[in-house]
User: Fold this.
Amino acid sequence: MSKHYIAPLSDNIERTSVFYKNRYGFTLAGDLYHLKNLDKNKQYPALIVGAPYGGVKEQGPCIYANELAKQRGFIVLTFDPCFMGESEGYPRHVSSPDIFTENFSAGVDYLGLLPFVNREQIGAIGICGSGGFALSATQMDTRIKAVATASMYDMTVASRLGMDKETIQATKEKLSKQRWIDAQNGYPEYIPYFPDKPLEKVPEDLTEPTAEWFRFYALKRGHHINALGGFTTTSNLAFMNYHLLDYLDEISPRPILFIVGDRAHSKFFSEEAFNKASEPKELYVVDDAEHIDLYDKIDKIPFDKLELFFKNNLK
Assistant:
């Protein structure tokens, strides 16, 4: 498996490959970040960082982990979702709202067994689609004491976005028929969205937000061979039959921080979730930022805000 990271590791950070199981028995591949020469006789607050939907730990999560472990006092865990990257799960590129939510709780399991992590001081960060999964995990798993999202997507809402009743029915019919084809072939259809080698520039004929996805995933900026976009075609059926955030108000009194770019096409996901959530909550808008800027732009991602949020609430 490739070990290409989209950003360099800070000189004072140690990154270790780790493996642990979720409750379904899948082995997850993660990276653990902390300061070099860490005094492991002490205990520290810890964060789990989830990748954008279809992304892997070597992309946006490595940037968040590097910054939050560097002089900010956190142990940080990143991971590949099941069926992705170096994590277990076969067939590859299968997506599940339940399993992807569970992956956050599995990260809590792992961190809470480390002797140098304070298990009462564990928080979660979800980027893009992982924002919805992180919130969903926090709804049920009270061990997550605070949660933040960046450029959040609720993939269960996205699976039906812009569809009327007839279109929804037609989509279900099409995907249900695809299951017959998959069963006959013995393997589910998977169509990559991005090229296997990075492009020099985004094709001029692409419209937004497709062009935006290409600005990150298809260029050297964010390209990774383990994240070529999309999931098995029939994965979307599970999302059409699921609501990730039905119990968002039950996270209270634990706090939520929603971070969005002022120009993000996805801004409404965070705004709707913010309105649905109970206090304490905050919607933090980053000036002059589009959706993907919160994946990797260190000058846009409000790390000081994240540090303050978690240090104030992981007590």
